[in-house]
Amino acid sequence: MTRTGRLILTCAICMTAISTAACRGMAASGGVLVAAAADSASSGGTKTVTIIDPVLNMTAYTLTIPSKWVFSGAVIQGSSCASGPFPVFRIESPDGLMGIKGLPRLDWAWSESTTYQPKQSPDCMPYKQEMSAAEVLKHMVGVLKVAYVRDDVNPNRATFQRNVASHNSATFTSTGDQARGWVRYHIHNIAIDERLDVSVVCSTNTVMMLGRQHTCTAFVGRSWAPQGKWPEETFAGIQKSLVIDQQWNQKWMANVALVLKQMSDAGGAAVRAMGEAGERQRNALHNSWEQAQQMRAQEHQDFMNTMQQGHDDFMRGQQENQDARARVADDWCDIALGQQKRLDPNTGEITRDSFLYNYTWVNEFGKRIQTNDVNENPNGMGTGNWTLQQNVGH
């Protein structure tokens, strides 16, 4: 087997351990995968939802959510930098004003070796160093283009760090970090408070002849609710409901171990020897990646639609305010000039007459008569058909 092949296999083992450990750590310590969700509507009952792994065709994760809420989710098989699978999901109330999202994972990798550098791929971030969770949080605020309100403290950060570091060895070390912050935006003129939870896991693996190899992954969760209506207790119930299916996890790990053993025993020929079964698995992996891309695009489109709606509502309000100010200024101008706007109900045309007279009559020839006597009607005098104009404004 080539040195590059050995490196890839070693990294696959490492990232499997990291991803599993990170998921367990976040489930145990209240991490980003289930940052929050739900409101008092949960009193109407709950339902169990599942996330299916398309490669193994098995349930990979389950969650318990309010019965009337909308759910979608998928298992993503990882990136070129980190192969371990992870869940992405969206859980939201029927009106969309409350919910949670587990976003696609962010991965990046680099090497200290002078002879080997990981190939830069579009599914990996271009960083060549470790980043704190706070730095990733700042990056996400810029991506989402929302107003940052304040920092917050994740009370489970120390527990998460211990869980991640528990896998360290002489040749493999990993560190974990968490950050939390609040942002604000509007949905249909309703102020929304959103909490961003970020967890970062970075690993260093010493590979024989290739030196120190580094990989980092960042998990980002979004949870939101109308300002002043944050239901922490209900959110905690959703948080505790995330379950990693153990049968799926064991089978996935067993398949990885089997593939690695086959490749170790037979070298690169083992991959080709997998034949149709290998082709089916590669197709499933490809389809899963396509699904990940579509979900990234949908997440982006959903967010942009929300932002665009807020922008449109703001601009419409601004235009209404501007029109109102213009009308007031126009009325004051008429008063200063001693004019009164009057509407012709037949044509819809607005004209201006002296405000010294209360009534204006207009005939079909455009001739106008002004009077202060409501009973002075020129119709029947043989001078045409007269229409009383309607006063507009002041």
Detailed description of the structure:
By secondary structure, this protein is α+β, with helices and mostly antiparallel strands. It has two domains: about 5-310, no CATH class; about 340-390, no CATH class. The protein is built from seven helices and 17 strands. It has helices spanning about 5-30, 135-145, 155-165, 230-240, 245-265, 270-275, 275-335; strands at about 45-55, 60-65, 70-75, 85-90, 100, 105-110, 145-150, 170-185, 190-205, 210-225, 245, 340-345, 350-355, 360-365, 370, 385-390, 390. The strands form four sheets. Strands 3, 4, 5, 6, 7, 8, 9 and 10 form an eight-stranded antiparallel β-sheet that branches. A hairpin with a 4-residue loop joins strand 14 (about 360-365) and strand 15 (about 370). Helix 1 (about 5-30) packs antiparallel against helix 3. The radius of gyration is 33 Å and the shape is elongated. The chain starts with a helix and ends with a strand.
Descriptive key words:
2 domains; 7 helices; 8-stranded antiparallel sheet; disordered N terminus; alpha+beta; 394 residues; 3-stranded antiparallel sheet
Q: Kindly report the average pLDDT value.
A: 75
Tell me the number of helical segments per DSSP (H or I, 4 or more residues long): 7
What value does the Rg take, in angstroms? 33 Å
Portion of residues in beta strands equals 25-35%
Instruction: Give the helix/strand class.
Output: alpha+beta
**Could you tell me the number of beta strands?**
17
Shape: elongated
The helical percent reads 25-40%
Characterize the biggest β-sheet.
8 strands, antiparallel
**How many domains, in number, for the residues?**
2
Low-confidence stretches: 1-42, 295-311
